[in-house]
């Protein structure tokens, strides 16, 4: 079987130039046509291993030990120019952020053809023909002309597909996929994932698939390697890892994902007077309204989840409520009293009762202040407390969010991501708020750490009776924490109600699309979803879930109804139906959107 | 060797040594100078001898003594000027960044107006109006230099103001000075520190240039730029008198730049091709 292996890493060791070990004693063997999933939290060394398999280390790191054998050649022993020649030709890399990985001043075709021409694999003309074939295979709109565009003229999902074409342009033996779908919306993620999978299968390429999402890797990998702190924890067949993980850590990872698939909270009793009432609020930046006519109520001790894809206006809602973005129209009441639109005209006591937890704990804490200063400031600011009392309160709050007291003298730089987010929560709590707006507080965290933060939020709600507005794109989180849910699409709330109702049939058509887009933890999920979506058009194929059919029928009825044209429902229905469109039609739709973006870009300049 | 917990390269040590020596001479000036500042000890442009190591200047004052007193005057003025310029520039820059909107527009456009005319022309104009004195010299240069500091601190401030922790402070209802002093300024301190070194150099050269033009430090105080101007006539006779103060200016400038380079390199991380294996 040894002849079969295309890439072999033996006792790989990577260190930073200051001597910290990042990857220690990792062995990877990849057979031709096999896909290995590398999974672990951030800092586990996944990307480092991915890059090391090309004998490359990021700035500040060094490969200090082990052998890297690609197709019989030991890379660490070969010359730098030999390594350069092999990269892109026999081993290719797809990066996480497509937008940051393209040269903005070169056309897509120039960039895709660069590798085959440089490596002398084919002439420019041949490379272009081949690139167009790849574009067609990846279902990019207008495969013959899309190459003439610049990176900013195509959408994120399309750019990720162009990057896949770029990686495939030399027909490499091995392809390293570094979280290729993480930066995409759930609904786009499915498309890219299935296309990547088909492409890899068709070419018989071997692949290293790096991700932190078990459910994603389950769809594509034959085997999975679980990593932690640069060491291998467990390796096995995908099915075995998902169903019978042997180690404690792998089990925790799997369980965390499984829990997200079940509903945790019941419907709250709705007799309580709402503490925050948002009625018909509209606001935006410049002349365009981002959020249109949004209304919802929030009761004491309740969690309302606001979900939607990126760009749906979720975070803007938070900015309007906090007053950072003054509303244009509508009314916001906090405990029965109207909130002034602008932040500057709100009384300190109003500001105190409404707190916020941000998405990125790294930038939400002043790196030059100690935790005592960070958490203590709201205490002394709102309550005029004495220095001694502030200190006691800070220690109390640290204990409340599960951090040791001696952290008070530390600075944010000395904390991990999860600890930082706990400090943000402690700072919000320091003001004794009634409502906390959480803007994706867990999306920048690793799954297990995020789970801890969610549990903390839940516990604080039970103990202190705080109401949360929980903004997120992760439906797993919603299921676990939200009593009620509002679904946003293009700045409007298209559905809201108790979470249990939102998540059970009959679905609102758009919600259904969102829900089915979240990867599930079994290996056949992707096939089932794709079958469900495509067979709406054609006949035959595997059976489609009833709920999907119902949603589509409902959507079609809405679109057919002329009185509802341009209404919210119509918009949502069009979104749902656009899934089932034939590729060419979808292409022209995409084209239109891109064109629109370009025009917008021009007017901005 | 490490200084302030950072590894200092040899060039930085040389720079630090030069600065330290200059500061020592400036502080201890009257004690180490062999003669009085305006004392005439020989004929015009006497060559160097055992009593006058660097010879004498155009009217027979000891060159070494003038250099020592000049260090005190030139470095002192440059230091005071730079501090004042940073105070004005940082305050205005951060106010513009934090308040934004029309405040930013008004201050920025006014600064643009100042920047649109060359500094030297401005200085000549203002000094002609205010008259030649140490105070007007310091105020003029500080005012003109603060426009440069303004642009840097505003740019730094705008990046920081967009961060969430400043937003949190705003949502808490914190005042302008808290946001500037506690949230923004401490995070902009590192780049501003290295800029301080550079601007000190520029101001120092600017004073020298003004003195050379006859609008700098008033007579009879010694300052390096003025000394170059006074002695430059000797060059045509092959006399080196003007070169000593010129060399003093050059050496201190190089020394400061060596240290600033080191400051700037502390934050820089390895990147690009050098990272390969």
TrEMBL record, chain A:
Stored SUPFAM superfamilies: P-loop containing nucleoside triphosphate hydrolases
Membrane topology field: Peripheral membrane protein
Main localization, broad class: membrane
GO cellular component: plasma membrane
A biological process term (GO) from this entry: peptide transport
Domain ABC transporter: 7-254, 276-515
Localization per record: Cell inner membrane
GO molecular function list: ATP binding; ATP hydrolysis activity
Keywords, comma-separated and alphabetical: ATP-binding, Cell inner membrane, Cell membrane, Membrane, Nucleotide-binding, Translocase, Transport
InterPro entries named in the record: AAA+_ATPase, ABC_Ni/Peptide_Import, ABC_transporter-like_ATP-bd, ABC_transporter-like_CS, Oligopep_ABC_C, P-loop_NTPase
Listed CDD domains: ABC_NikE_OppD_transporters
Family designation: Belongs to the ABC transporter superfamily.
Name of the protein: ABC transporter ATP-binding protein
Species for this entry: Lichenifustis flavocetrariae
From TrEMBL, chain B:
Keywords associated with the record: Cell membrane, Membrane, Transmembrane, Transmembrane helix, Transport
Keyword Nucleotidyltransferase: no
Superkingdom of origin organism: Bacteria
GO biological process, one term: transmembrane transport
Record carries keyword Membrane: yes
InterPro entries: BP-dependent_transpt_permease (IPR050366), MetI-like (IPR000515), MetI-like_sf (IPR035906)
Domain ABC transmembrane type-1, first and last residues per copy: 71-260
Transmembrane segments: 12-33, 73-99, 119-144, 200-222, 242-264
Topological relation to the membrane, as annotated: Multi-pass membrane protein
GO cellular component: plasma membrane
Compartment(s): Cell membrane
Family per record: Belongs to the binding-protein-dependent transport system permease family.
Name of the protein described by the UniProt record: ABC transporter permease
Species of the source: Lichenifustis flavocetrariae
